[in-house]
Amino acid sequence: MAKGVWIVAEQRDGALRKVSFELASTARKLADQLGEEVGAVLCGSGVEAMAAELAKYGVDKVYVADNAALEPYTTDAHATAVAKIVKENDPAILFLGASAQGKDLSASLVGKLATGMATDCTDVKIADGKLCAVRPMYAGKCFGEIVIDTFPQMASLRPNVFPIVECAKAGEVVKFDAGLGEAKTKVAEVLKEAAGKIDVAEANVIVSGGRGMKGPEGYAILEELAGLLGAAVGASRAAVDAGWRPQADQVGQTGKVVSPNLYIACGISGAIQHLAGMSSSKYIVAINKDAEAPIFARADYGIVDDLFKVVPALTQEVKKLLA
Ligand SMILES: Cc1cc2nc3c(=O)[nH]c(=O)nc-3n(C[C@H](O)[C@H](O)[C@H](O)COP(=O)(O)OP(=O)(O)OC[C@H]3O[C@@H](n4cnc5c(N)ncnc54)[C@H](O)[C@@H]3O)c2cc1C
Q1: 131-160 tens-digit pLDDT
Q2: What CATH superfamily classification does 200-322 receive?
Q3: Is the pTM of this model over 0.85?
Q4: Roughly how many angstroms between the first and final C-alpha of the chain, as a whole number?
Q5: How far apart are alpha carbons 269 and 265 in whole angstroms?
Q6: What is the rounded distance in angstroms from the CA atom of residue 92 to the CA atom of residue 131?
Q7: CATH superfamily of 5-175
Q8: Atom of ligand 1 at shortest distance to CA of 254?
Q9: 264-315, pLDDT tens digit by residue?
Q10: What does residue 173 show for φ and ψ, rounded to 5 degrees?
Q11: Atom 53 of ligand 1, nearest CA residue
Q12: Phi (first) and psi of residue 62, to 5 degrees
C-alpha cells in the first residue's frame, strides 16, 4: 500500500532553493497527521552535502542521486531518476514546487508515474486519509478542492505560500542509482540572470510597474526603491509587451505567479490576468492616479496620486528609516 509523504527537493548552484524547505515543512505536517514518514528526492551533481539540511525541516529520509549527468538540470534525466526511486518506494503523496523547474519536471513525471496531479496549490490538507489539494481556478476567481484517486497523489505547491518550520530530525541519507540511459537532451548553454538580480518568483518584496511607468526609463525610480527594500522589480504584461522590461519580470496569468509578503503595484490597473499572478501576496499596496482602478479592490493599502510623486517620496521615507 502506498505510504509516506515525499517531496522533490530543488537545488541550484550548490544550494537548496527556499521552496524545498516549504515543501519539506508541509510534508512533515501532513505526514504527522497520517503517522507516516517524510521522504525527499535530491538529484544533481555534488549534492550529497545538502541532504543533511533537509532533515532540519522534518525529512526522515533523503534519497540522493549524485550523478554528473544530472547537472545542469534536464527534464529527461531528472524525471527518469525521480520516477525510478518513486516507483521503487511507492509514496502516497508527492509534492513538487510550482516553480519553473518544478512545473517542467512535474509534467513529465506525472506521465511516467501514470497518476493525477493538482498544480499550483495554495493549501493542502488530509481529508478521509487522502490528500485534498486546494488551488485557485478561473484566474483566482474561486478555489477548487482536488482529490486524486491514483498514487502517488501529486501536487505542486506555489512558492512563498507555505510556511517554513524548523524541526530537527536525524535524517537518513539513502543513495540511489538514477538509472540513466543515454542522454536524450544536452544543455548547450545556460543563460544566467545578471548577478544579484532577485527573481520575482522568489522575492519577499516586489515593486512592480505597469503602463503607468510611461517608458523603460520610468523604472529607475522603482529600481531605487527596490534596492533599498531588497526587493525584485516586476512588471505588467503591458510593460513587457512594450519592450520596457524583460519577460522574466512579468507577473500574471502568462507570466510568473508570485506570493511575496509585500507587492507594491505602481501604475498597474489590476486586470484579472495580472491579479491572477499576484493576488496571493500577503500585503498589496497600489499606487494609481485613477481612484476607480480595479487594483484598489484587491489592495490592502491604496494611494491615489501620481506615482512619479509618490514613489520618490516613499523612497525618501525608507531612506530615513534605514539611516
Ligand atoms: C490571455 C491574456 C493573458 C494575459 N496575461 C497577463 C499577464 O500575465 N500579466 C499582466 O499584467 N497582464 C496580462 N494580460 C493583459 C491584461 O489584460 C492587461 O492588459 C494588462 O495587465 C494591463 O497592464 P497595465 O495595468 O500595466 O496597463 P493599463 O491597464 O493600461 O493600466 C495602467 C494604469 O496606470 C495608471 N497610471 C497611468 N499613469 C499613472 C501615473 N503617473 N501615476 C499613477 N498611476 C498611473 C492608470 O490609471 C492605469 O490604471 C493578459 C491578457 C490576456 C488576454
Answers
A1: 999 999 987 889 999 999 999 999 999 998
A2: TPP-binding domain (3.40.50.1220)
A3: yes
A4: 60
A5: 9
A6: 9
A7: HUPs (3.40.50.620)
A8: 8
A9: 999 999 999 999 999 999 999 999 999 999 999 999 999 999 999 999 999 9
A10: -105, 125
A11: 273
A12: -110, 120
